[in-house]
Amino acid sequence: MQQNWPKRIWIVRHGESAGNVARDAADLAGHSRIDIAERDVDVPLSALGERQSQALGAWFGTLPEQPDVLVASPYIRARSTAEAIARQLTVQPQLTVSTDERLREKEFGILDRLTRRGIEELHPDQAEFRRVLGKFYHRPPAGESWCDVILRLRSALDTICLHYADRSVLIVAHQVVVLCMRYIIENLSEEQILEIDRQGDVSNCGVTEYAAEPHTEAGGALVLMRYNFVAPLIEAGAPVTAEKDANVAAR
Fold this sequence. Notes:
The chain is of the alpha/beta class. It has a single domain (8-250), classed as Phosphoglycerate mutase-like (Rossmann fold). 39% of the residues lie in helices and 13% in strands.
């Protein structure tokens, strides 16, 4: 049965977060643990992340076709990015940001807040399991694999398709969510999505966009229009970053 897709979907990674900055500092210093006081859900945008979000929002506000549905991960960095975009929309300037916990960051369990060095030092068995199984299937204790993320994202997309088949939907979430959404929407294989991942990280505030095939009505098959699109940041003079999140060593 054909999937009844929205007529357009944008999927955006949040702006640079304080967690991105802290992880870079930990790696540079050779530390095993990342120094972040907040829960992952509470990690805010950095000052640069706020600037990136503003730049992306200004770009969305110039589009002839703008989002009329805005859904975000409940994590503060994603919600803040979504709200910055919503404030600059001109077609629906009062658009409300809805949150969906199924769009949350991948959960890392016992590997939370560890650098790659920390994982190898403190949990060498998990480092070996990940090497053998690969990141697509490896599930750390109390955490998730990419397959687990994909399972909940299939459910989230089903809900979006059910309620917003004739709408233009903007989703603001996390790097793994962007990649796993591509896996689902494009019906990719494990090898194909991991090759995309190997080519480089998803940029903060990078845009992935899908639209209904030309000459088909809303609800038809989606075509990838752009991936990791950062021109709005460059044009606004906001530095482009593709920093790994605080837990990305486990990703």
